[in-house]
């Protein structure tokens, strides 16, 4: 799902004709991917998907299952022993806000279990993203980045080379400074 629409980008750019709508749509998706890559996270998800976890993701002392990513909607939990755990019996971490980075089964109900085989993995189903819809500042950053890319097509590629002006050196940046500031606020540590 796109964080912004072509219509929003056109309004930002002051465009009233539809000549470049296809190009703007392509640039919009590129801008969104650049923001996700820079932040190390997805900001919204359309559909629920399932991810699988093993004992290496489980803190046995606290009973917390570390998700290694953002979860904004929880729709299903299947424990490693094959039993379904009601989502109401699962505590989210943090408790009062998304995205969630960990889950714990209510201690009065049980604990997470997992074994060494594929069929014994813990299955968590939900929307794996920062939130159900992108935050307003991410939407605006996506619009701004799309406009930046759109305007760069007229610069003959000069946005990606170092410029020397007198005693100053101006180095290009992948993201405009205002977009970088928004992305930095949401950035996750990216490990490879």
Q: How would you characterize the overall build of this protein?
A:
- The protein is an alpha+beta fold and 192 residues long.
- It contains four helices and ten strands.
- The strands form three sheets. A four-stranded antiparallel β-sheet has the order 1-8-4-5, with no helix packed on it. The protein has a four-stranded antiparallel β-sheet with strand order 2-3-7-6, with no helix packed on it. Strands 9-10 form a two-stranded antiparallel sheet.
- β9 (163-165) and β10 (168-170) form a beta hairpin.
- α1 (6-13) packs across α3, α2 crosses α3 (136-152) and α2 (21-39) packs across α4.
- The longest helix is centred in the N-terminal third of the chain and has 19 residues, at 21-39.
- The chain is elongated and about 65 Å long.
- The mean pLDDT is 88.
Write the layout of secondary structure elements.
Elements: H1 6-13, H2 21-39, E1 49-53, E2 58-59, E3 64-71, E4 73-78, E5 84-85, E6 90-93, E7 100-105, E8 122-127, H3 136-152, E9 163-165, E10 168-170, H4 177-186
Antiparallel strand pairs: 1-8, 2-3, 3-7, 4-5, 4-8, 6-7, 9-10
Helix pairs in contact: 1-3, 2-3, 2-4, 3-4
Provide a concise account of the structure shown:
The chain is an alpha+beta fold. It has 4 helices and 10 strands; from the N terminus they run H-H-E-E-E-E-E-E-E-E-H-E-E-H. Strands 1-8-4-5 form a 4-stranded antiparallel sheet, with no helix packed on it. The protein has a 4-stranded antiparallel sheet with strand order 2-3-7-6, with no helix packed on it.
